[in-house]
């Protein structure tokens, strides 16, 4: 049986190995870098493998991203073109991302942070309205995660729109696509939620130029990748009132450096890249199927289009 390499960052591999072996007891899984002869390795399960390493395995057939995003795999320009790339597409991950997005949107819509901030003043505001009809949410990305979260917010009574690269039809959601579609959606969006993959086309999409196309005082949720946001543009947008509040789960540098100005900004809610969880029992059978399909030459679930970048 050929070898499967596993590489995680900041997590132990044992629980993943045990969960995968429950479905495929014969799998030989070894934690990188102690994987034995390089020519035995035909599959890799990775999160943030250093670039230039996978090319050392001449019989590698498939790289499985232990995450929904594959930017961490595609940044390795030495990965041979014939190696297939697959990613996590999993209902339990969609569920946890939806919970994060719903929490962030409602927290901003109801301005929960101001109650926490002003608690010391015994602040008890007068009557105020928070009708969700007046808080249209626009999603950048209507894929596996975006569609799930958009549908949940719609069910909670928010007007919801979504933008994708290609045309899409999702019940109850007003959809847009392409560059012209983006401007049309931004003009009507009170809360912008980014659930895009990081590609050449989407890097830096959350910029001053994009913020200027939103109604003044709009809110921002970024749970895509830190590189979607031009970080230097956010605090000026908050200071001008163009953006009222932001909830960021991902950052250009992670962990967010201790001296980063976002830490001191009460208008930015920070979570530590934990919007969506990879639930080990749920993804283990997917990993087994992805590796087995690659070995047998069958269609691979969650296959990534390398040219498209996601
Ligand atoms: P997905 O199913 O591949 O969906 C991607 C969506 O983005 C699709 O709707 C796609 O359009 C759209 N898109 C891609 N490029 C575009 C462009 N240039 N213009 C307009 N739309 C574009 O991905 P997913 O599973 O929903 O995951 C999305 C991302 O979430 C991941 O790549 C990852 O970066 C991030 N993520 C973050 C966390 C976290 O914990 N913070 C966890 C999981 C995932 P089409 O529908 O037309 O293809
Ligand atoms: C996490 O960021 C993921 O892409 O799954």
Structure characterization notes:
- The structure is a single chain.
- With 310 residues, the protein is an alpha/beta fold.
- The protein is built from nine helices and twelve strands.
- Helix content is 30%, strand content 17%.
- The chain binds NADP nicotinamide-adenine-dinucleotide phosphate and glyoxylic acid.
- Residues 67-69, 88, 276 line the site of glyoxylic acid (GLV).
List the helices and strands and how they pair.
Elements: E1 3-7, H1 14-23, E2 28-31, E3 41-46, E4 62-65, H2 71-74, E5 84-86, H3 91-109, H4 112-117, E6 137-140, H5 144-155, E7 160-164, E8 174-177, H6 178-186, E9 191-194, H7 208-212, E10 218-222, H8 231-240, E11 243-248, E12 268-270, H9 280-296
Parallel strand pairs: 1-2, 1-3, 3-4, 4-5, 6-7, 6-9, 7-8, 9-10, 10-11, 11-12
Helix pairs in contact: 1-9, 3-5
The structure holds NADP nicotinamide-adenine-dinucleotide phosphate and glyoxylic acid.
**Overall spatial form:** elongated
Q: Give Rg in angstroms.
A: 21 Å
N to C succession of SSEs: EHEEEHEHHEHEEHEHEHEEH
User: Strand portion, in percent?
Assistant: 15-25%
- Spatial order of strands in the largest sheet: 8-7-6-9-10-11-12
Instruction: Quote the distance from N terminus to C terminus.
Output: 30 Å
Assign the structural class, choosing from mainly alpha, mainly beta, alpha/beta, alpha+beta, or little secondary structure.
alpha/beta
What portion of residues is helical?
Answer: 25-40%
Question: Helix segment count?
Answer: 9
| Largest sheet report | 7 strands, parallel
Bound molecules: NADP nicotinamide-adenine-dinucleotide phosphate, glyoxylic acid
**What is the averaged pLDDT score?**
97
Low-pLDDT stretches: none
Strands, total number: 12
């Amino acid at each position: 049986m050929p070898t499967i390499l596993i590489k995680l960052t900041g997590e132990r591999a044992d629980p993943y190995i045990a969960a995968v072996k429950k479905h495929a007891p014969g799998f030989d899984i070894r934690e990188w870098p102690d994987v034995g002869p390089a020519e035995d390795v035909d599959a890799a399960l990775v999160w943030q493998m250093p670039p230039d390493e996978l090319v050392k395995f001449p019989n590698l057939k498939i790289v499985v991203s232990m995450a929904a995003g594959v930017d961490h795999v595609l940044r390795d320009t030495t990965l041979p073109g014939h190696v297939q790339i697959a990613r996590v597409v999993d209902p339990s991950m969609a569920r946890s991302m939806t919970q994060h997005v719903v929490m962030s949107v409602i927290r901003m819509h109801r301005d929960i942070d101001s109650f926490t901030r002003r608690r010391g003043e015994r602040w008890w505001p007068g009557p105020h309205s928070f009708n969700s009809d007046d808080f249209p949410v626009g999603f950048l990305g209507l894929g596996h995660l975006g569609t799930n979260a958009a549908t949940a917010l719609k069910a909670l009574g928010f007007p919801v729109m979504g933008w994708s690269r290609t045309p899409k039809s999702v019940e109850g959601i007003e959809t847009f696509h392409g560059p012209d579609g983006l401007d049309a959606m931004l003009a009507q969006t009170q809360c912008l939620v980014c659930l895009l993959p990081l590609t050449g086309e989407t890097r830096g999409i959350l910029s001053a130029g994009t913020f200027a196309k939103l109604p003044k005082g709009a809110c921002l949720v970024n749970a895509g990748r830190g590189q979607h946001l031009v970080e230097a543009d956010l605090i000026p947008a908050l200071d001008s009132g163009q953006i009222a509040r932001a909830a960021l789960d991902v950052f250009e540098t992670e962990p967010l450096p201790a001296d980063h100005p976002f830490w001191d900004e009460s208008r930015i809610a920070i979570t530590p890249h934990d919007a969506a969880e990879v639930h080990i029992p749920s993804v283990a059978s997917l990993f087994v199927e992805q590796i087995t399909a690659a070995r047998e030459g069958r269609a691979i679930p969650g296959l990534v289009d390398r040219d498209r970048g996601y």
